[in-house]
Specification:
The chain is α+β, with helices and mostly antiparallel strands. Helix content is 35%, strand content 23%. The longest helix has 17 residues, at 93-109.
Length: 110
Amino acid sequence: SDLVKPGTVALVESDSSSKYLGSVVAEDVAAFARNKELAQAVLAMDVLRSDMPTLPADMHLPEALGIFSRPHCAESLALVNPNNDLLLGVVNKTDLYLVLSEIMRREKLQ
């Protein structure tokens, strides 16, 4: 389906606390998107995955890259406060590799 790109993830947080609840993976939504009745009836919470790894904000780059290199890992993961699981943002695997590439480029220039 052109509506849902493989590997993309939407993050879900509760309205009242901004606590990370889980992720909705594109592949899980694709089957519902093809059926109009299902697409209108299914809520994000129905396909929410609470078992997705998260990236604590204090995690170092090599550790984060290690998580992204796990089999079947999503392209984007939630960045959370390690003390209270508040959702801080989204980290994309491609962006991490771009940062690593830039660090290596700068080290070569020194």
